[in-house]
Amino acid sequence: MEDQNSVSLAGKPPLIVVLGPTASGKSGLGITLAQQFAGEIVSADSRQVYRYLDIGTAKVTPAEQALVPHHLLDVVDPGEVYTVAQFQRDAIEAIDGILARGRVPMLVGGSPHYIQVVVDHLAIPSVPPQPELRQQLEQRPLAELVAQLERLDPQAVRVVDCNNPRRVIRALEVCLISGRPFSEQRGSEAPLYRCLLLGIHWPREVLYRRIDLRVDERMQQGMVQEVRGLLAHGVSYERLEALGLEYRFIGRLLRGEFSSEAQMTERLKYAIHDFTRRQLSWFRRDQRILWLEGGAALEEEAARYTRAFLLAS
Q1: pTM score above 0.70
Q2: How far apart are CA 34 and CA 41, in angstroms?
Q3: CATH of the domain spanning 125-185
């Protein structure tokens, strides 16, 4: 991400960003800060924009949404594709609306690219979607796609979430159609906001325990039934593959690719651990993030930094 300190942000409106890996407690901290500072939350989660993906994405409950206004949840049906460009447009519109109401916008989530396109106001490549090319690329293993992207654009594998097939396919699409590296077409425009980036840090072993507990809780809450419901409403197994690890693994369970639900659950936990390592690698490259230790003092420390930031605005 671009260093905002190198860009003049005098007079820019404030934006609080709460980020971190899966199961770190972002949603709860975002709600607490929004309650304290007259804020409204804009979700920066690439899957919570989809309706009916509730349990598998740990979407905030209706009761939690009632505590403070939330934006960009349940935007489109899961059969549709919601692009980063759409998110950038909708997030900026939501943030500007919050500011116009005299309230504090808070971008909360763990999707690094969604956060980056808002914080750094990235220019999205102008290459339109290529359905036929995408269909061809979708038939190939993810590891093979990543290897091809690395050959075509080594820099891109440092900025693209290589655990997300849609992101990798989009980067390849831009490279193949334009004949230019994807990484060269992602320049930043002038930042729109002065941002405070708060990250939540847990020791790795603690974070993994939190992830495993969350997976167990989701299974008890009916995550398999949620996926069955999606299939019953016309979402294909192929589409489930693109909706994240939980939907991918449960889809494969329902197709008989695991010997038992217990085996699937264990494999899913390890896959989320791996995804979290990639998530953290992305975030660690951004030196602007202020990392706060998870635990009893988290909310107080986050509030102290938020208060000082807003007073300086």
Answers
A1: yes
A2: 7
A3: 1.10.20.140
